[in-house]
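#structure-requests
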Amino acid sequence: CEIDIVLSRDGEIVLSHDELLDRTTNGKGPVGDHDLAALKRLDAGAWLSPEFAGTRIPTLTEAIEMARVLGLGLVVEIKERRRVDETIKRLREVLDATQALEDVVLLSFDHPSLLRAKERIPGARTEIITHARHVDILAVARAACADSISIELDMLHADDALALAEAGIGIRCHLPRPAWLARQEAYGLDPAGELVSALKRGAITSVSGDDVSFLREFLLVRGLPAPPV
């Protein structure tokens, strides 16, 4: 499960996709301008659906504890931009206290910040995100000392994936929602062709997306291994 983290004003790591509260809570302004106690009073579920009204913003510690109960690993995307060093320091404390280092992969668009996290949290696994096809993707991954790289479907090429796999660098490819793929395929396009080729060559570590059932079906109909229900 992928989650996003930012830092509260009093130095606690909390889950939030945005640095601002406005879109996904009934609060206003930057998450980092509020103490944890104030954040905990906000409604973080009603914006999505009435059935989630009253949902509170969890801390990273709470998320790790719940993931352990559910048997899930976590891909933790660092969304904090203003206090990166403080976030990395607190992240190390949380991972040490929960003994969750083996269950977590750190993720970011900000490769230098992720490199700092790698240097300051011994044993941490890191995954860089790229939305471009680089001339030398292997050099990009190595410069960040990344264990893996997240590549969007339309930027994935099987030859690049194979080069990364041969260098021991994992690849996570993110699939868009089924409707997007269906629309492309209706016009005779094959948006997932390079991914399928890379999967058949054993070059992909994981496939992610918002619809887990669809991901499983996507693999099964193409004769590829899929996890059990």
